[in-house]
Automatic annotation (TrEMBL):
It comes from the Eukaryota. Transmembrane segments: none annotated. Residues 85-131 form the F-box domain. CDD domains: F-box_SF. The lineage of its organism: Eukaryota, Metazoa, Ecdysozoa, Nematoda, Chromadorea. This is F-box domain-containing protein. It comes from Panagrellus redivivus. InterPro entries: F-box-like_dom_sf, F-box_dom.
């Protein structure tokens, strides 16, 4: 029996011999031999010397990675759904605040429980806050704050709160005047005050406070509140270069041009970094400061700067769009006290203010104090009271020698013993 495998081989060989050969036979592409510096590198094996990179193993694996698999074609395409905004999210905060303003205070505060949007609007709004005339903050020895609010009767909070803990309770109140009593004010405390009091104030009082701030930082703190009156009473500055120098300079008044009253009072003689540059701004202000008092301190203010401020008062024009004028006798007077003027005395001051005294007179004069009164030609302005202090150097008084007998030697024996000894 013939072998079938041999029969197939003979059939295939006869087919190859009898097939028609093509006129042109394509030869495989021969790649140029790569230059290798390593003499031990082995050359690729193959009939042509090099293997075509198109048929290399790396190319095959890359094609497998780029070809999408069967399971990838069966996956459903993922579509990112856009977030649908409700009507409340689309409305601005000012519109929502106007709508919620028609509610009473209790319902207005309860609107915070509806959603996050209304919670943000109520927290930032000042409509639901309870208005108080005066608010006072005190600090204890442990650095915690007590809130003092004279609503119906003066009372203190029962529990003291840390500085960050007073933000939420104070945001439900709106005061016209705030007093900071015996508080150490640094940058951390400034951030607490700016978050708790985010509205304008009429008056700010610092009483026995300890400042660790520069003059520029104090000016920016007051600028956020825009008060019309600021008072510093018996405060000290630990950040100043000297214990007698106070970090209040011209920058505080440059950042707060809305001030109508500034009072600085201290027990010890402190020196302010305020110069004539602040008094020169009186001509540029829309309203002259009604009270400018530097009591118990010295500054860099000179007699020329004071005379320029008085001229600004005498030459001030009436306010526009005012059809009637209030009598000056009803208005409280302007109080300007410039503290102690260095390198000046009473005689120099009287000679310097002599041209201005035709509009006023000298109310009181002494070697350490000078009080002037001025009246403006404009009927709507109240009278001006100016007080200037001088540094007086008292001469050394002649002290007579003691004549009370302390320098005379004497003994404790009585007269009888003296006579007997004689």
């Amino acid at each position: 029996m013939p072998n079938p495998i041999l029969a197939i081989r003979r059939k295939a060989s006869s087919f190859r011999e009898n097939r028609v050969k093509p006129l042109f036979v394509a030869r495989p592409r021969i790649m140029p031999e790569a230059k290798t510096t390593d003499s031990t590198a082995q050359k690729p094996k193959g009939k042509c010397g090099l293997v075509d990179p198109e048929y290399s193993l790396e190319n095959f694996l890359n094609r497998l990675r780029s070809t999408p698999s069967v399971f990838a074609s069966l996956r459903k395409p993922t579509v990112k759904r856009a977030r649908l905004e409700t009507c409340i999210d689309a409305l601005p905060d000012t519109c929502l605040e106007a709508i919620l303003g028609n509610l009473d205070q209790k319902d207005f505060l309860s609107a915070r429980l509806v959603c996050k949007k209304l919670n943000t609007v109520v927290q930032k709004s000042t409509l639901g806050r309870k208005s108080v005339s005066r608010l006072q903050l005190n600090e204890d020895s442990q650095g915690q704050l007590y809130r003092f609010t004279p609503l119906q009767a003066p009372h203190f909070d029962r529990y003291a709160l840390p500085p960050m803990g007073v933000i939420a309770p104070m945001r439900h109140l709106k005061a016209r005047m705030i007093t900071f009593d015996n508080i150490t004010i640094n940058m951390g405390m400034v951030e607490v005050f700016e978050q708790a009091v985010d509205y304008t104030l009429d008056e700010v009082v610092f009483d026995f406070c300890h400042f660790n701030l520069s003059d520029f930082e104090i000016g920016h703190l007051l600028r956020s509140w825009r008060p019309r009156s600021v008072s510093f009473i018996n405060c000290d500055w630990r950040d100043s270069d000297s214990s007698q120098t106070v970090a209040i300079s011209d920058s505080l008044f440059a950042l707060n041009t809305q001030l109508q009253s500034f009072v600085f009072s201290n027990i010890g003689c402190k020196k302010l970094l305020v110069s004539d540059r602040t008094l020169q701004r009186f001509d540029q202000l829309l309203h002259l400061p009604h009270s400018f008092q530097l009591a118990g301190c010295t500054s860099n203010i000179t007699l020329s700067g004071i005379s320029g401020a008085i001229n600004a008062y005498l030459e001030s024009c009436p306010r526009p769009n005012v059809s009637y004028h209030i009598p000056a006798s009803i208005l409280p007077p302007y109080l300007w006290e410039f503290g102690i003027i260095e390198n000046a005395n009473l005689q120099e001051a009287l000679q310097h203010f002599a041209p201005l005294l035709k509009h006023g007179y000298v109310a009181q004069s002494s070697s350490s104090n000078l009080e002037l009164r001025f009246t403006s030609a404009q009927r709507h302005l109240a009278p001006l009271y100016v007080t200037i202090g001088f540094r007086v150097t008292l001469p050394m008084a002649f002290v007579s020698p003691s004549v009370d007998g302390d320098d005379i030697p004497w003994d404790d024996s009585d007269g009888e013993n003296d006579t007997e000894s004689d």
